[in-house]
């Protein structure tokens, strides 16, 4: 999947126990009906989460959302993306217009709209602008992207 539009890029602590971090990007497709989230690959990041729906499933739901486990994972991802745009973390990069491509992706259709989205598409994302990709990769502290000794 690829497109052009507003992209929000942010550092993300995805595992509290190990302090594992990555860089995520959030955008939309289909006039906002599809939330698109992707991990921006950072060379040497041994903590890259891989499957974002599986990552969402590891965060334990208390009942915030309804539907199947997969739909609830999608809701968690939609919430993560939407909230990253509305409540920005330090270092967040928000670009009004950028080309992007997502691969190694999975999609889930939601049982009803969540955060304005009916579908979530998640995978690895690359941005057409290589300078922007470098800015995004720089959000991950260098110590995070190399194995511990």
Which key features would you list for this structure?
single chain, 149 residues, 21% helix, 42% strand, five-stranded mixed barrel, 5 strands, alpha+beta
Number of helices: 3
Helix content class: 10-25%
Rg of Cα set: 15 Å
Strand order across the largest sheet: 1-2-3-5-4
Query: How are helices and strands ordered from N to C?
Result: EEEHHEEH
> Mean pLDDT, as a whole number?
88
Largest sheet: 5 strands, mixed, barrel
Question: How many angstroms does the end-to-end distance come to?
Answer: 38 Å
* Beta-strand content bin: 35-45%
Task: Give the CA-based shape.
Answer: globular
Residue ranges: pLDDT <50 for 5 or more in a row? none
| Number of beta strands | 5
- Given helix and strand content, the structural type is alpha+beta
Written overview of the protein:
Strands 1-2-3-5-4 form a five-stranded mixed barrel. It is of the alpha+beta class and 149 residues long. The protein starts with a strand and ends in a 12-residue tail after the last helix. It has three helices and five strands, in the order E-E-E-H-H-E-E-H. It has helices at residues 52-57, 69-86, 130-137; strands spanning 2-15, 20-29, 34-39, 93-114, 117-127. Strand 2 (20-29) and strand 3 (34-39) form a beta hairpin.
């Amino acid at each position: 999947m690829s497109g052009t539009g507003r992209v929000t890029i942010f550092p993300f602590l995805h595992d509290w126990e190990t302090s594992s971090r990555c860089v995520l990007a959030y955008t939309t497709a289909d006039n906002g009906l599809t939330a698109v989230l992707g991990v921006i690959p950072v060379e040497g990041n041994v903590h890259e989460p891989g499957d974002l729906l599986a990552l969402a499933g590891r965060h334990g739901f208390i009942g915030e959302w309804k539907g199947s486990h997969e739909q609830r994972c999608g809701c968690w991802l939609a919430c993560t993306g939407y909230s990253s745009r509305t409540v920005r973390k330090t270092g967040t990069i928000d670009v009004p217009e950028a080309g992007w491509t997502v691969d190694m992706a999975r999609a889930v259709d939601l049982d009803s709209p969540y955060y304005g989205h009916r579908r979530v598409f998640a995978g690895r994302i690359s941005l057409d602008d290589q300078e922007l990709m470098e800015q995004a990769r720089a959000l991950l502290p260098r110590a995070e992207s190399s194995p511990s000794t």
